Amino acid sequence: MSDAPEVDLDALLESTKENQEWLRKRIKKIREIDRLRGAFATKRLVKLIADHGVETTDDRIDNFVSMRAGLAPEAYGILIRHMLREGWCSDSRLREVTESRSDALFLEIRRFLDVGFHTIDRLKTEIPGLFRVWRASMHVPGAYIRGMLEIEHRPDTDALWTVETQAFRGEEEAAPHDEIFEGYIMKKSHYYVMFSRQQQGHAGPPRVTVIHNVLRHSGLIQAMEGVMTGTYGANSLFSTPIYIERVLEEERAALRDSLDIVATIPSSVRAKLRFRVENDVIRY
Question: pTM above 0.70?
Fold first, then answer.
């Protein structure tokens, strides 16, 4: 991908036949980049134009990109100004995105699971935020982890980045310490799947959390139930139920201070962490 210095970016603001042809080719080139295809999908472009007070349709955008028709000057102006503002008219900007490996795992997981862009669009509006995590402790048998989960949407790649923090405050001869697991969360069918691994120089086998039940309110996921599978220590493989509940951002400091391994938990949470064994199969 080479820069094209002969293109006068300021001149692109005028809706001429030549400029519309340039925009058509640029959109098609951008759609060839997997990480950008969703951001330049037809419905995204229609919404972008509509947000600026100009009506258009999916058919008009599709006809423009497929060379069957031109764009209305007002719609062209909105698109070209957006692309100039965001840097998409620059070949060096496209090369930077193409060569970057940022969030490559999320993008590969999305491709492998064949997750549609409409699913990502919904996921990035309903799930980001701050959560409290409850699950059984491997470090202190019979006790429970009260942890923290942060889910962040990264606009450049549409990735859903996760950071789970769990803390042990220490007792007797045991020193207090934190453990941080970073990864991604994805949705397939009605399941949410989180892939993560421990950071801080201790990256080992990944942990996989499968969420099978969610509670929504006002367009946001408020609570999630599922099962986590991972390793503990050198040879211990474990699975445990997990319950995740949304916390308001203004409660972040209090939540962070409350992180620990605790002996007792609310009865409503304990009910969410139950499981049963049937014919050598663990069911949650």
Answer: no
CA–CA gap between residue 138 and residue 129 (Å, rounded):
26
Indicate left, alpha or beta for 279 from its phi (over 0: left) and psi (-120 to 50: alpha).
left
In tens digits, the chain (284 residues) has pLDDT values of: 444 444 577 788 999 999 999 999 999 999 888 767 888 899 989 999 998 999 999 999 999 999 889 999 999 999 999 988 888 888 777 776 665 557 888 888 988 999 988 899 999 999 999 999 999 998 888 999 999 999 999 887 889 999 999 888 766 555 567 788 999 999 999 999 999 988 755 556 789 999 999 999 999 999 999 999 998 876 788 899 999 999 999 999 999 999 999 999 999 999 999 888 888 888 87
Residue listed under structure tokens 């409290």: 132
Q: Residue 12, class by beta-carbon neighbours within 10 Å (0-12 exposed, 13-18 middle, 19+ buried)?
A: buried
Q: Is the dihedral of CA 18, 20, 22, 25 positive or negative?
A: negative
User: What is the C-alpha separation between 67 and 63, in angstroms, rounded?
Assistant: 6
**Distance set, CA 149 to CA 122, 161, 198, 225, 249 (Å):** 19, 10, 13, 14, 12
Phi then psi dihedrals of residue 113, to 5 deg: -85, -5
